[in-house]
Design a protein that fits this description.
Blueprint: H1 7-30, H2 38-55, H3 61-64, E1 67-72, H4 74-79, H5 88-100, E2 105-109, H6 121-133, E3 136-140, E4 144-145, E5 150-151, E6 168-171, E7 181-182, E8 184-185, E9 188-191, E10 196-199, H7 201-209, E11 219-221, E12 224-227, E13 230-233, E14 240-241, E15 253-255, H8 256-260, H9 268-273, E16 297-302, E17 310-313, E18 325-327, H10 328-341, E19 346-347, H11 350-372, H12 379-408, E20 410-411, H13 415-431, H14 439-447, H15 453-461, E21 469-482, H16 485-490, H17 494-514, E22 518-523, E23 526-531, H18 540-565, E24 572-587, E25 592-597, H19 599-614, E26 618-621, H20 622-627, E27 632-641, E28 649-657, H21 664-681, H22 685-698, H23 703-717, E29 727-729
Parallel strand pairs: 1-15, 1-16, 2-3, 2-16, 3-6, 7-17, 19-20, 24-26, 27-29
Antiparallel strand pairs: 4-5, 8-14, 9-10, 11-12, 12-13, 17-18, 21-23, 21-24, 22-23, 24-25, 26-28, 27-28
Helix pairs in contact: 1-11, 1-13, 5-6, 7-10, 11-12, 11-13, 12-13, 14-15, 17-18, 21-22, 22-23
Length: 733
Amino acid sequence: MKPRISKAARELLTHIGISFLVAAFVLILTQNILGDFPPLKRAELSLIDLRFQLRGMNTVVSNTSNVVIVEVSQESFKSLPDKWPWPRSYYTRLIRNLKRAGAKAIGIDVVFSSGDAQHPENDEEFRKALHETGNVVLVGKVETDMRRGVLREQHEQYGNVYIDSSSIIGLVNAREDEDGVLRRYMPFIYDEGQQRRIPTFSMAVLNTYLHQAPGTVAEISDGNFEYANRLIPEYDPTSFLINYYGPANTFKRINIADVLDDAEFQTVEERATGTQINTFDDPENGYLYDGTFQGKIVLVGSTMPEEKDLFTVSVGEGKSDGDNKMYGVEIHANVIQNILDQNFIHRQPFWMTALVVFGLSLFTFVFTAALKAIRTKYSFLVELLGVGFVLAELVIIYWASIKLFNEKNFLADMTSPFLAVIICYIGSTAYNYVTERKQKAIIKNMFSRYVNPTIVDELVANPEKLRLGGERKELTVFFSDIENFTSIAEKMSPEYLVTILNEYLNIMTSLVLFNNGTLDKYEGDAIVAFWGAPVPQIDHAFLACKTALEMQESLKGLREIWRQEGKPVLNMRIGINTGEVIVGNMGGASRFDYTVIGDSVNLGARLESANKQYHTTIMISESTYKKLEGKIFARELDMLVVAGKTEPIRVYELIGILDNGISPETIKFTELYTAGVRFHREREWNDAIRQFERALEIMPEDYPSKMYIDRSRLYQTAPPPDDWNGSFVLTTK
């Protein structure tokens, strides 16, 4: 007698199930699984800014930073004699003075959209200075698709007239979030026209500073951008979060006029007083000698609102609303210093968010539901206890998230845990007023006996799928058949035949289900299965091939047992194809099957049958092979025109899985065989025969090699037509 599950156990299981559903719902809402949900997205972004505000300003970076900002400010206009736009001679003097003062890398965050209109002769001298110094990075700006980090259209010289083939360049396109705040930075932008990635401005400056080749870009590596032996954690596939050291003016700023003011330059003040100040090369305290720029990165940029290079950022002074503004040049300083310090913000990975959400959902729902199940005349105290418990959870989540950010630069998700706790509390309250439904149990009882468990799970979660109809999806279909089964069956009694067949089908079916396949049907001794539905599987092609190899290996063991028992030996042929099919419930209103139909299904059946022509056991299509290049070991059999088709397809014999190891003998044999096929297609009949004969020295019984030798000898005497494409027409099904 089977033990009965108690009511309490059933109720606990129900609580667990509901909490998991809540967790999944929360993840869908907050993790962009089905798209953005703007209110929650903005809430999470605002919580990022809150962390920065609570952390405050880094008070030492101004003195310890490798970055110095030379600002084009309102004050500099008062000191410089020429009106805006300044002559290019100013910038020529600037970069030469910075070079003299020991600046290791210079980034000019100014887009020169035109030359020096007043003094054209200055343009050539500026270009000469750029090439002489060799450490100056110019900026460009283009129209981009900021979500994808791809150029929309190509602008000549990226909008900067001084960019040429020898220039060191970086792009300064900013990517603001939906609420207009600049939180992330793209390390490169992809130029579709030139089919290359171009570093953004900060990265181009770092290339110069760190002695990287100009144009070096970060590589994408397992959730990180890998650059100069540093791993920069991704925020999304095209950007990383800027770890702001503080609000505006956190980094040291120097007036551009003070760098220009050398012995050969006269400021407005010097002309007015007749006194040489020479803030740059004064022997006692000039910038040339005091080490301000020695070995540093110098960023030149505007700090004037008129230049419209002002952005809303995550951190402000906190004195008034809207004081979280920062000029572009200081944003670049933050990015550069982040990378030099390897001071990165690590976003909580999805798996960890999912684990936290599932754990909190389970704990909150089960605990609060258990509280509400308590029957007492002081029920309001129970309710207060439940509310207090939920509030305590929210406070702990908030405190832990802030602490992790301040001490570990770890950006833990707040919105998802908050939402999970709140919804689970509401859900547990509602659960007390809703009677338990038995639909899930009914569906499981009805279908679990003859349908794959994954289908049952899908139907339980989505009962609407019980309606008739199908959907178009890419799947991998699998057909197997026993070789010469009809003739074998004629020699046995029906009872004996059923015993052997059941033993065979039981083992093969268990392998399909073990590898998460969906069993479609049995057709006598044939097995039809597929992967990729009803639950999506990214690796459906691999799972089908893995199953086929495991089936053949299991059958090999079965044959040994059957030989000892005096039973007939069975051999199996398998065909596998990946392609678009129609999958769903098909049939009548009272009787239907979850199955697949379409040309791709028919092709899978043809491949199973085609094994006869080549004396092979597992044949896969080109579409399956292409999905698994680098994972499986296979050899091309032929370019086959199957019955009912006119266009040839490449077909392959599946030999093994690369991670499981392939013997050197098999690899050598396959290399010789493949060379023979290539010569055969190139009409080099003698060379083809020679390669196949060498292959047969390793595997003397290989039928495809013998077949190609016969074909090649035939074509030596009767060559194929000029338009022959190497294909073979299969006339049987």
